[in-house]
């Protein structure tokens, strides 16, 4: 069987379309959706949003914690489990995209956790942090 130029071009196009449709594609940032979840108090919502680190990450046990400001203005803490995910080498002023689970504690403290690919009953959806075109999950 010979493919010829047309066959090879069609096969290449099919592969490109499969990749574009979402074979392993990640969530895009939805800053307004994130903002709505915060405003409506949607504790436990799965969120994806753009943010800038306000503080450098600090190691605390098997977590690194840092404060970010979301593109929509909210200031929140990120609890990234380094026992389950790779440490994020970001610093204050760096931009990131975060995908995880929103938590709203009394106080009011808001934050995001479950930013790791390993799932559990407390973190049923895989999460991640994108920094400098790399994923930390």
Please give the CATH class. Mainly Beta
Shape category? globular
Fourth-level CATH superfamily? Nucleic acid-binding proteins
Q: How much beta, percentage-wise? A: 35-45%
Integer average pLDDT: 87
CATH topology: OB fold (Dihydrolipoamide Acetyltransferase, E2P)
Task: Please list the strands of the largest sheet in the order they lie side by side.
Answer: 1-3-4-6-5
Low-confidence stretches: 7-23
CATH architecture classification:
Beta Barrel
Count of strand segments:
8
**What is the oligomer described by this structure?**
single chain
Question: What's the N-to-C terminus distance?
Answer: 43 Å
Structural class: alpha+beta
Q: What is the H-and-E element order?
A: HHEEEEEEEE
Put simply, the count of helices is 2
Features:
single chain, 137 residues, OB fold (Dihydrolipoamide Acetyltransferase, E2P), five-stranded mixed β-barrel, 8 strands, 36% strand, globular
């Amino acid at each position: 069987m010979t493919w010829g130029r047309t066959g090879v071009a069609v096969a290449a196009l099919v592969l490109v379309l499969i990749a574009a449709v979402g074979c392993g594609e990640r969530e895009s940032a939805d800053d307004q959706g994130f903002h709505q979840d915060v405003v409506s108090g949607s504790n436990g919502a799965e969120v994806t949003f753009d943010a800038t680190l306000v503080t450098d990450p600090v190691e605390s046990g098997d977590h690194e914690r840092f404060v970010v400001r979301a593109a929509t203005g909210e200031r929140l803490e990120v609890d990234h489990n380094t026992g389950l995910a790779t440490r994020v080498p970001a610093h204050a002023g760096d931009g990131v995209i975060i995908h995880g689970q929103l938590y709203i504690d009394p106080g009011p403290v808001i934050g995001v956790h479950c930013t790791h690919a390993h799932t559990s009953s407390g973190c049923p959806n895989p999460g991640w942090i994108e920094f400098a075109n790399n994923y930390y999950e």
